Amino acid sequence: MPDPDLLAAALGHAARGWHVFPLRPDDKRPAFPDHTAENCTQADPRCRAAGRHLGWEPRATCDPERIRRAWSTRPYGVGIACGPSGLAVVDLDVPKTSDDTPPAAWAGARDGLDVLTTLADRHGGTIDATYTVTTGRGGSHLYYRHPASGPQLRNTTGDRGGLGWKVDTRAHGGYVVAAGSTAAGRPYTVDLDTDPAPLPGWLAGLLAPAERPAHRPMPVALPADRRGPYLAAAIRRQVAHLTAAPDGQRNHVLFTSAVALGQLAAGGALTADDVNAVLEPAALSLGLPAGEVTRTIASGLRTGARNPRHLANTGRAAA
């Protein structure tokens, strides 16, 4: 049964200009789509209409009619897509068990708020009052406005390339469970209802991604016969397709490029190492995480291997 309170929450967040999308009832996971980019068959109506896989981020909306249609069918939770909403959210977690203790670098910290306070002191900054949500486990989400200029901020996680123990952030490519929702029976509630403050400069500086070198593909040994120019053009085409991909579609485009070159690899014209050598640097230069790049290329190679393309010396695919 639909829940009028969840519908009201979704409409309220959208009225602030925040792009919302359905989460599975009483869960943190997106309700749609029910498949990954690698497994997209265009059976989903939204994917079919777009002519490509459509993930949760481009489905997020502020359109009241679309919101009413979705939340009038089931008691979906409410997710807020941070990138389209112009938000950078700092997620301050709390220990889940008594054994969940900080590493030596954060000795004495009790939770994410302690770590963020320490960071502010170290960098001569402050933690400005802003729209705040208490999470289901008792942590906090601090909503800030994403900087209008400068690099596009993305997600960070704890001590693994992030700010520190129990401090995650969500921006472009990330989402948060919105106030009014529940997860595992635990409610998300508004703690301070005010407009999001600008992301403090000291925080924006810490979260700014490191500059990446320009894409320089590894050299690939191409045949000296007439297949060589054809393969070189195919590689250039796929790399150009990938580097031109808009944010939110880059992983899917990486997959389709890996499939296309994987077909040539399966036909013997290239090797899997060749495909990795040209696609991996391009994907990393776009800011895709290294682990995600490795998995996506491997998946594309497997998919491409199901339909090998064999090249004749004419430079055309053999019949």
Helix-strand makeup class: alpha+beta
Series of secondary-structure elements, N-terminal to C-terminal: HEHHHEHEHEEEEEEEEHHHHH
Mean pLDDT over the full residue set: 89
Gap from first CA to last CA = 55 Å
Low-pLDDT parts are: 314-319
| Quaternary structure state of the chains depicted | single chain
| Rg (C-alpha, Å) | 23 Å
- Beta-strand level of the residues, as a percent range? 5-15%
Number of E strands: 11
The general outline is: globular
How much helix, percentage-wise, in residues?
25-40%
Note the total helix count.
11
| Largest pleated sheet | 6 strands, mixed
How many distinct folded domains?
2
Explained architecture:
The protein contains eleven helices and eleven strands. By secondary structure, the chain is α+β, with helices and mostly antiparallel strands. It folds into two domains: 4-207, no CATH class; 227-304, no CATH class. The strands form three sheets. Strands 3, 4, 5, 6, 10 and 11 form a six-stranded mixed sheet that branches. A three-stranded antiparallel sheet has the order 1-2-7. It is globular. 38% of the residues are buried. The model is unreliable at 314-319 (pLDDT under 50).
